[in-house]
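Q: Structure for this?
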Amino acid sequence: MADGDIPKMDHPLDIPCLKHGAMEGLKPFQAAPEHQEKLGFPGELVPDWKERALEKMAELAEKNRAFQVYLDTCVKCGACTDKCHYFLGTGDPKNMPVARQDLLRSVYRRYFTFAGKYFPQLVGARDLTEEVLAEWYSYYHQCSECRRCSVFCPYGIDTAEITMAAREIMDSIGVGQKYSNEIIGKVKDIGNNLGLNPKALRATLEDLEEDLEDDTGISVRLPLDEQGADILLVTPSADFFAEPHIDGLLGYAKVFHEAGVSWTLSSYASEAANFGLFIGSYENMREIALRIRKAAQDLGVKRIIFGECGHAWRVAYSYLNTLAGPWDFLDPDYPVPQHILEFTWAEIQKGTLTLDKSRNDHIRLTYHDSCNVARASRMGDEPGGQFEIPRNVIRAVCNHYFDMPDETIREATLCCGGGGGLLTDDLMELRQKGASPRMTALQQTTEDHGVTHMAAICAICKTQFSKVMPAFGYEMDSVVSVHQLVSNAIILTGQDTGKDAFEEGTE
Amino acid sequence: MLSVIYALLFWAATAVLVAGLAARIRKYARTPAPLKIPTTPAPTTQGGVVLRMLREVVLFESLFKSNKWIWLFGWTFHMAMWLVLLRHLRYFVVDIPWWLAFVQPFGTYAGFAMLAGLAGLWARRFLVERIRYISSPSDHLMLALLVMIVGSGLMMRFVAHTDIVAVKVFMLGLMRLRIETLPSDPVLLVHLGGVAALMIVFPVSKLLHAPGLFFSPSRNQVDNPREQRHLAPWAAKLEGARDG
Ligand code: HEM
Ligand code: HEM
Ligand code: SF4
Ligand code: SF4
């Protein structure tokens, strides 16, 4: 895509004029039959797809209160129309949350409501046709399930729930998205999104241990499949070799090392992310979550901690107990699961970590609240801990910290543009346009405070930003992991700080 | 004859409203929410949820965060409507308690506030491109219906008075399953016809937002998934063959 296509915004929340059909043609690659079948879906469009789709819709309305209530409740007040970053970035009216819901609601009304059955024109009800299906496929893959619209709707209508239901309906008739479904298949076969097998994983971790020792002179371990460890760390597999994720992983290892706890990764549950969420499939989400239960039981751990990942933390915090609990075999003194930032913050408060903030002085930092951490989870005991704990940790390791404009952070945070199963090259145009509100907010903060870097705690955010930031005038490595900053600042017990042992990759 | 038609109309409308709403509410109540999805930050206690819901119902908190114009018009319209409805209670109770007498003058002027709110909301449906795009004919009709009810009410109050004592007798009669004589002023007939139409469409239209709000999982769930296991009945059935 030419850079000229990226909308130039004066303000991150500038409302564009409607550009009808602007994103109409955009469709991600479709899943191949073998990827579909591995997930329990038909391989390709079934002949009686219309009936099957409507059956599925009725089933979901019976199994999921949110779906049923949200379909009925919208009054078309329009409060959500300017809240979606994809609408702000593309101007396509079908990317307004209520309009996105209506793509499905119009069909629901036609077949399941009195008004839609007898007065379809009056209430905007329409038949389910191939064109409608094509529209669903396109626009339900232009929603990152970020929940920003839900915050601002007077009834809390969450378009993400409708998107998930729509994807589930499409999967059930044989129309799935390649990116998400292929990845779920890999987790089922191998244990992680990247398809990294245990041997390769072990080799990677050993390399990293060596690097750490070269850098610090201290032997810091990255244990794998260690029976009887206290803590099972479940982290997104991107942490094993993508930048800047990997620097975050080193940060976790250093914190565990200094805290003096025994911990381990699992090759069987070597993935925190759970893409079952993206496609709205309870069954697939559950199957993936149960891998974590099995790993915890097999390894005999006492606690489970999750690494930096956004949607993963949603599934972990909000759903893990539901999907794979109860966790009565773990140590009841700790919440299950915990976030690595909860752990690190507790250690900082206890004073077990020696931190030299000045080691991050080359960075002027801001922080991106990841959407699903912000609006679908919590950290700590207080509501809003998901905003404060990351900032507390950042302030403990960084001297120069500045927030982005208020209306673009915390619960009103703007999605990175790549979440919810959209982090695929076939959607690059959408990803760049969808990132522009966030990038505009960042540019403002750079102008006001000279900010050079942005920290994030989500594997998707990190990958997305390192990919799109260059188009907005930033280096790829301007996005950093929070634990990368922790890693920079930490002075390990016995570490010789005379010869400088900085983490590379932040300048 | 007219009285009979209107009596039958109101009985039917009441039946549709009550039965339709009850069926809908039962459906919402019986449909499980399989996962914890409160929009966070969310309250961590049941009491906190009650407060959150109260703020949504009384203050339209989320709408206020979202859009000040829609909030202004919408909130004015709804709050004025409650006052007007309160004032209308006098047609349905024999003795007027002191507080009902007290709200009477406020209720009168609330009619104008309702009209202003409705006008603002309707204007947005024409003037704001985004809202024009999402509006269906039914959205306009709903506003038209309400404007008609409110307009005819105000007409009776300030221009073409009707015999409100007779109206009261008619209404009290309906509640006792008797048909009394309804004054045949056209404005009153329009008013009551509109009200009956509103009652009938309530359970099959977006007016379901009133009960819907209370069942919205993103607003009514407690944020305590780590402390308390949440499991839908249909999901519990999947548990059988686990850990084996
Ligand atoms: C629990 C009670 C209720 C609550 C919390 C509530 C809340 C809301 C909110 C927040 C909106 C969106 C903003 C707006 O457009 O005004 C709205 C719209 C609306 N409400 Fe209610 N409402 C309630 C009861 C009612 C009732 C009983 C009626 C019946 C007349 C009603 C009629 C409407 C209409 C017609 C709209 C759409 C206005 C438009 O077209 O923009 N509401 N309501
Ligand atoms: C069966 C139900 C109803 C009856 C019998 C009824 C009857 C009346 C009457 C007789 C008046 C004239 C008052 C006067 O002259 O002092 C009036 C006024 C009015 N009505 Fe109704 N009405 C009913 C329902 C409603 C509803 C549901 C609404 C709104 C949604 C409404 C809105 C108004 C307004 C705004 C006025 C003018 C202000 C006022 O007098 O309070 N009415 N109504
Ligand atoms: S804010 Fe909520 S009720 Fe209003 S149009 Fe959007 S989804 Fe519908
Ligand atoms: S969930 Fe996020 S991406 Fe989806 S419609 Fe709402 S604001 Fe847009």
